[in-house]
Amino acid sequence: MTAETRTPLLPARRSGRVKGLAKRFGTEEVWAKATAPVALLAIVILFSIASPRFFTAANLSGMLADSTIPVVLALGATFAVALAGIDLSLAATVALGSVTMGLAYQQGWPLIVCVLVAIATGVAVGAFNGVFVGWVRIPDFIVTLGTLSLVMGLALILSTGVPVQMREPALTFISTQSLFGIRYNILIAIGIAVILHVVLFHTRFGTHLLAVGDNADAAKAMGLKVARIKLAGYMLCGTMGGVAAVLLTSYIGSSQPAANTDYLLKAIAAVVLGGVSLFGGRATIIGPVLGAILLTFLQSGLTLLGVSAFYSPLVIGIVVIAAATLMRGRK
Amino acid sequence: MTDNTRSRSSFDNGATGAGDIKVEVRDVEKLFGSIVALRGANLTVRKGEVTAIVGDNGAGKSTLVKCLTGLYVPDGGEIIIDGEVAHFRNPDDAREGGIETVYQDLALSDQLSVWQNMFMSRELVRRVGPFKFLRRKEMKKQAKTLVEDLAVTVPSITNSVKRLSGGQRQAVAIARGVMWAKGMIILDEPTAALGLRETAQVEALIKRTVDQGQTVLIVSHNFEQVKRLSSQVWVMRAGQVVGGTRTVDVTNEELVGMVTGAIQLAG
Q1: B145 contact A CB<8A
Q2: Is residue B155 situated within a structural domain?
Q3: How distant is the Cα of A302 from the closest Cα of chain B, in angstroms?
């Protein structure tokens, strides 16, 4: 992409194309982009050798469907992290979204309205985070830690801790039926990923989001509305929490008042694996998607090999720290 | 957008008619609480040449520049641009008035590419129904053409700014200013952090900018640079412009004397 117009100008750059290429391979950017796909490929190959049941259509389709919620949450987390922020309330938002959806369902509202209620809940939580990060200027870590507890509490209070059964054929359809062997829920997640890719790389908002994440002062000097852009980023992140709530409710068939912190861990892990800079300003959409799929495959593969489920958080933790170290070491 | 006044020559110091004045600063005052930063500063900037402001730290150079770029609103006096009194309340107003500023810290987004930085907040878009999408190819093309026109030494327009040298980063920031300026660029200490070679590159770029018809106002600590680049120099001391002269008429030593107050000048 950049090969055609490299004019060497300073003496240090005059050592020819080979060195330039080697330099490019050594850059952090290349490593960040390559980590998720290479690791995913390695894991697929390793598990395929280790277990004959891994590389089968049924298992692959099932694992992809299981990646749905991690993928959607990783997409949301990408926008917070690209802003040089973080959203710790993401998993709690999923719980609250599923609770409000259940409440709407109990009111006898049409299913589509229940779905919109869940998504609106996510938008509202994101807006709350965005306002406190953008205008009140409290560090993102503190704001979303507070929101995590606040939202978790709200979900328990509103639901009194009791799940609402939602046995709607239209709802279970997306988690059980497939198109060409691929489950509808992961197809929805991929559809959202495509839209968010366009948002990030083909709209002014996407460019401005990265600019704010990279250097908020420079962005301000160029006339960008920093607080407003942060608000929009956190709202997008919250929206993905709401969407994940719908997909989770569809998958389980009932609302889920208790937050599953494993989701938060996986979302952030997928973002790191996907090469999104934790210091903001650099992000891709495909990276976190592959990262989320990778982590789900890793978990399923270990289960398939008979490794106790207790080991999977340990393995995920190791993978994430290793990936982060690899990218950091190349600076 | 840069070829509107390209035919003007760079060192046009013959005429002094009112039409050749780009900016006139009249009795501009600025207070910060009880501290007087500017106590009635006066100067003029002629069209199509480089005007320099020199002065010691705290002389009020930056404050005056910030009044011109809309970052500060003066407490008194007026700023006349192209014969009309300007009322800049923020940097966007100044930008809309055709004045671009290259700040000392450059205001670049390191991890974004050269072309993204050059079009930052002024991206070209294509409307599709209710949506607006970036015209990435068009922006890359325009950025590339501009960079080549200015003979700016940037490896590639798609490189991230982070991978450029100090001089190249400066060149990108100046090229962005040139691209959007409709007549005038203000450069605040453009070579303060650069080595000799890079300083020479940036100075060459500033000269080409003027050749293309832009008016340049430069704040500098470097008297040799002021001698090399500017046609007119104004000296500031204690919140006032204490004197001004055509640069050809002074020596380095005289400039130093004016700044320190050892030599008195009639404005």
Answers
A1: no
A2: no
A3: 37
